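so my prof wants the structure for this chain in the tokens format not the other one, which i didnt know existed until like an hour ago. anyway here's the sequence
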Amino acid sequence: MKEYSRVVFDLTNKSKKNVVVFDYPELSMMTLHCPEEGLFLGAVKQILDAAYELGELPRLRYSGKPSAG
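here's what i got, hopefully its the right format
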């Protein structure tokens, strides 16, 4: 995940926009657990917050639905 994170953070820095990238299984799980727009965007915010805090994109784990955010 470290190298993958470097590529994503580099793109984020160059574009001046937050970037989150999902592979197909991750996107499938995200839409299964977050069927509403608010839940999906809340989960993306949680992922971004964790990535900036950790300095690395987190491995996604599904222990329950994220809160709308």
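also thought this was worth mentioning. The chain has one domain: 2-54.
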